[in-house]
Amino acid sequence: MYARPDKYIKTETHPTLKQSEREKELLDKLFKGTEDIDKKYGVGKYGPDLVGLPKLFEEIGFKNVQLDAIAVPIAIDDSRNSYEEKIAIVEAERQQMFEGIEMGLELNCNGLTDKELVELRQLINNRFDKRISFIKSRTSVWDYTIIIMQIVSGMVE
Q1: Is 98 left (phi over 0), alpha (psi -120 to 50) or beta?
Q2: How do 9-10 and 2-3 pair as beta strands?
Q3: Side-chain-side CA neighbours of residue 31 (13 Å)
Q4: Helix (H, G, I), strand (E, B), or coil: what is residue 11?
Q5: DSSP for 70-117?
């Protein structure tokens, strides 16, 4: 199974929910210089050729190769999501942002001052609190992502 973020279908963020310039600036500062780590360890260097993946399976000995795809929509405002599920999706996204910051701090412990770190977390909290306020007021924003997953399977004899 393989999914590439650059192939996702993603809507534009509602203007009041976009990252502020200050949030972007602090995130850039936090992650400055960490790109070298990906290069050092070859992260993404050997990503599969999606078009050639079924052929690769055949070449390495798989039989009865099958190709499938799944589209997974993540749409907070979808009417099938309960109020609690909508809040849970936003909170999970908020937590992902905070985990990303923690990863950045592990890679670049001096990337932000304590004051900047507090400011960044507050900016993120404010943005996600705004999204939750839309949910609470039953205002649909229709910010969504559709993830496309490619699944290649086969049998080895």
Answers
A1: alpha
A2: unpaired
A3: 12
A4: coil
A5: EEEEEETT-TTS-HHHHHHHHHHHHHHHHHHHHHHHHH-TTSS-HHHH
> Which of helix, strand or coil describes residue 2?
strand
> What global pTM score does this model have?
0.82
Instruction: Encode pLDDT of 43-71 as tens digits.
Output: 777 777 778 889 999 999 999 999 999 99
What is the three-state SS of 116-157? HHHHHHHHHHHHHHHHHHHHHCCCCCCCEEEEEEEEEEEEEC
Radius of gyration of the chain from its Cα atoms, rounded to whole angstroms: 20
Report the C-alpha gap between 124 and 101 in whole angstroms.
11
| Site of tokens 């502020």 | 20
As a whole number of angstroms, the distance between CA 60 and CA 62 comes to 6
* Rounded average pLDDT over 92-97: 97
Structure tokens at 34: 């960490």
